[in-house]
């Protein structure tokens, strides 16, 4: 029997040091301290949790896309919570409640990768799933929870570490990274859900010029990525599209022969 050299290492399933990694971009330290205290009081203690920050309070070290990618790469928790500094947990047993929600979703759909408290359903009409409280006492409730969604609001996102997710490297800024995260998860074969996990969010969001700039970038990136195209490998060539008709037509031998002839003619003409 062949014996491998001693310097070869056998890879095993990861063993995580923490149950949760709680990650936040910080611009206002006092507000972050209030968030931190609420987590500690709710059962997210330092024996089972690590707390990671990007400190942008004095100058901008990283934008949201850079910061979240750093969190996803560095976190040692089985589950990675990425949240705003302006949230507050309001139940002293929030850790137990979150554990229950994770167990419920895992039983329902083992291929989940992202959970949140607000998101949108993948439909033509604007169907939302939300459970968030606000400082004035109003609780925004929409949809039946848990609900599978196509995007997650960034105020509170929970990511399964072993899904190995990351954000796009060609967008940047501070908006729509919840959508980007869910799109990447779906591409990798995972799903996203809004769960029943109530907390207070001090802000209702801010649609400003930077949001519109990021939205334009997201549209351009995914329009380009999702367009129909021929895929080439060293063995196979085939057409991919969201249209069943185009997939059938463009993958027929007759159409591919016509396309090949057109490409040959175009190449010859370009020489003149």
Could you characterize the architecture of this molecule?
The structure is a single chain. This protein is 34% helix and 25% strand. It is an alpha+beta fold and 272 residues long. The chain folds into 2 domains: 18-212 and 220-224, Alpha-Beta Complex (Spore Coat Polysaccharide Biosynthesis Protein SpsA, Chain A); 229-263, no CATH class. The mean pLDDT is 92.
Give me the count of strands: 15
CATH architecture verdict of the largest domain? Alpha-Beta Complex
The name of the CATH superfamily of the largest domain reads Spore Coat Polysaccharide Biosynthesis Protein SpsA, Chain A
User: Any low-confidence stretches, pLDDT <50, length ≥5?
Assistant: none
Shape: globular
Give me the Rg, rounded: 23 Å
Instruction: Give the strand line-up of the largest sheet.
Output: 2-1-3-11-5-12-9
**Number of helical regions:** 7
Q: What's the number of structural domains? A: 2
How much of the polypeptide forms β-strand, as a percent range?
15-25%
* Structural class assignment: alpha+beta
Mind summarizing the main beta sheet? 7 strands, mixed
CATH class of the largest domain: Alpha Beta
CATH fold topology of the largest domain? Spore Coat Polysaccharide Biosynthesis Protein SpsA, Chain A
């Amino acid at each position: 029997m062949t014996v491998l050299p001693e310097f070869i290492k056998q890879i095993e399933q990861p063993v995580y040091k923490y149950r949760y990694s709680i990650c936040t971009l910080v611009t206002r330290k006092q507000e972050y301290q209030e968030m931190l205290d609420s987590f500690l009081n709710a059962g997210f203690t330092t024996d089972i949790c690590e707390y990671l920050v990007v400190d942008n309070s004095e100058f901008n070290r990283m934008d949201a896309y850079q910061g979240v990618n750093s969190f996803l790469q560095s976190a040692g928790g089985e589950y990675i919570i990425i949240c705003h500094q302006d949230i507050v947990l309001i139940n002293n047993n929030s850790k137990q409640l979150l554990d229950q929600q994770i167990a419920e979703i895992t039983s329902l759909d083992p291929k989940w990768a992202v959970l949140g408290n607000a998101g949108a359903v993948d439909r033509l009409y604007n169907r939302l799933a939300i459970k968030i409280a606000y400082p004035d006492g109003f609780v925004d409730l929409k949809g039946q929870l848990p609900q599978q969604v196509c995007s997650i609001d960034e105020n509170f996102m929970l990511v399964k570490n072993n899904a190995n997710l990351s954000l796009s490297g060609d967008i940047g800024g501070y908006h729509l990274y919840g959508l980007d995260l869910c799109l990447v998860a779906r591409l990798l074969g995972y799903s996203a859900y809004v769960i029943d996990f109530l907390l207070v969010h001090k802000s209702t969001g801010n649609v400003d010029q930077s949001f519109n700039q990021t939205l334009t970038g997201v549209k351009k990136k995914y329009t380009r990525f999702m367009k129909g195209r021929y895929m080439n490998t060293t063995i196979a060539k085939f057409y991919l599209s969201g249209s069943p008709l185009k997939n059938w037509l463009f993958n027929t031998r007759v159409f591919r022969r016509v396309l090949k002839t057109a490409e040959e003619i175009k190449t010859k003409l370009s020489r003149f």
